[in-house]
Amino acid sequence: MIVLDNDLQSRQLARQLVQNAKQAQAILATFSQQQIDAIVKNVAQEAAKHAEPLAKIACEETGFGNWQDKVLKNHFASRHVYEAIKEMKTVGIIHDDPVKKVMDVGVPLGVICALVPSTNPTSTIIYKSLISLKSGNAIIFSPHPGARACSKKAIEIVQRAAEAAGAPAGSVSGVTELTLEATSELMHSKDVSLILATGGEGMVRAAYASGTPTISGGPGNGPAFIERSADIPLAVKNIIASKTFDNGVICASEQSVIVERCVLDEVQKEFKAQGAWFMNESEMTKMAALLLRPNGTINPQVVGKTACYLSQLAGFQVPETTRVLIAEQTTVSRKNPYSREKLCPVLGLYIEEDARAACRRVAELLNNEGLGHTLVIHTHNQDVIRQFSLEKPVNRILINTPAALGGIGATTNIQPALTLGCGAAGGGSSSDNVGPLNLLNIRKVAYGVRSIEELRTPADRQSQPQPASFQSNNASSILNDVRFTQSEPELTADDRFEQVTSEGDDNNASEITEQNVERLIRQVLQRLS
Fold this sequence. Notes:
529 residues; alpha/beta; five-stranded parallel beta sheet; seven-stranded parallel beta sheet; 15% strand; 15 strands; globular
């Protein structure tokens, strides 16, 4: 008996998953809209029933966040996402325009490979299952090794629910031998149509490098601008609620706060009243050393931890009621962790003289990290909102709402999603909150409405204007026109054609030679210009 090494065995199992998924998707592609909708509904309902136990398993296994907020995320991924997509047409003719004589036909992509992050494992599996099944695709999950058990449990729940509602076996599956080789096998398989990537920057880059079409999220670094017209107590409440939700692991959450100096005192007072701790120089230095690893990436030890735990880990004490830690900053760089993404309740604070300076600071922070992702503005000034909307290099601009929940579509009316595209600016292929329509090819059906002869006929010939007709009661000769009766205007001399000479011309300058003619032409042209 031959015993395969773990990496070889994981590759073989991954290949088998792809073959099973391909066969299942061929059957799914024949299902009606009603059949697809029944599967999606059952998966959403079953996932919602297991929201709490899945949240507790995920929190215990990963050590990130808190289980209470993960329950809310699981409900969001099941109920909220389902409510947003349940009426979508995704099978057959999804749009028909009888006036323009065009139709759109939804065509499933095939087999989708889904990468799962350790920060949001169970909610990501629920969400990606729903949007994939809704669009008639089979899906294979490659979970993060740090979230192995909770991911396996979530996949099993979704798998059973889908098959109980009529989905063929293999429609939903997951890698059980978690190796880089297995994930690589999935991403490079010719039978995988798309990689739906949510995870670390390295894994997302590997997905794009595989040559398989990829839709991904990206790193956030959301600035929150508190403009002078804002409801400051509400703005501070929203920022703290967002930054402490699941201890800050959602990538859309605020990473820096930008404040106009004229409202600084009120903002600081409100932050302190609501549980923020403003670190001194010594504390900021200790925390900065903890946030990033020597290679410049975020330290996993700080991800999804509470403010009190982080302060103890850094070596200083804060009151037990502390909810967020704030560091006043003046610089932005890759080496300054306070100006980068921090998946924990730590915020940078930047003080600017006015809205224009704040606008520049926001752009500087986004260019440092987080291009294409999210920013939030707290204001009642529509001109400020318009200015930011037209200028800032992000795909989600949120107004007066917690960014973590507004960005995913929980407290706003944008598409509910847990994969937030960053577009070309962020190195991605989509700027959308990814939903079922992103996982379809759209086949265009169009009737001919113009002939080739019409195309060859210039538009101005097709509708020639009729010449105006002039009528006069008195017959008269054209010679009576005033233009023929006016005296001839006196002509003035035109000095453009006078002989042009230059200093140094000799007597031969007036001779008609080739050289003299060329010189005369150049001089005339110079005077005309």
